[in-house]
Amino acid sequence: MSMTNAGKDTGGKIEFNLLMWLTFAVFFVAIAITRIMPRGARPKVGGHDEGKSIFAAAKAATYNSIPFAFM
What we know:
Blueprint: H1 3-36, H2 54-69
């Protein structure tokens, strides 16, 4: 393995992790705002996040939306 191959792999990991963290942050803020709202005023988009923590819901939304970034 040469030194040039090692550098290419690290760059891809950094970009992917940055994309994951930024997407997680966006979903975390959005879900936190909707959780502050009364239940009747919350948007009914997926409906599968009832009972999940804010972190779990943001993580699920991140993993569900990341593949669309690579289409």
